[in-house]
Sequence to fold (117 residues):
Amino acid sequence: QVQLVESGGGLVQAGGSLRLSCLASGSGFSLYTMNWYVQTPGKARELVAAITSSNRTSYVSTVKRRFTISRDNAKNLLYLEMNNLKPEDTGVYYCNARTTTTNYSSWGQGTRVTVSS
Fold:
C-alpha cells in the first residue's frame, strides 16, 4: 500500500507555471501507474495525466504540450509540470496510485490550483 500527499498548488496568473508534487510513502511506488486528476466545480473528477511503471505517459487533450507528468522512483515522487496555465485549468488536483492486476487505488488529499485571468 502507498499513502499520497500532494503539494505545490497555488495562485498563478494565466500564462504562468506551477509544479505539483506527490510524495508517496509505503511500499511498491515504482510498480504503480500514477495519475493526476482534477476536480472542478460542476464537473466530475477528470483524469489529466498518467504515467506507468515503465514511464509511458498520456494526457487529456486539453493539456497536451503544456503539462508534463514525471516520476522519480528513487524518491517516491510524482510530478506534474504545468506550463502556460489557463483559467480553465483551475481546480483541485489529486494524485492517484493504481494497479489493474489487484484493483488497488490510493488517493491523496488534493492541492488547489487557481489560475487568474
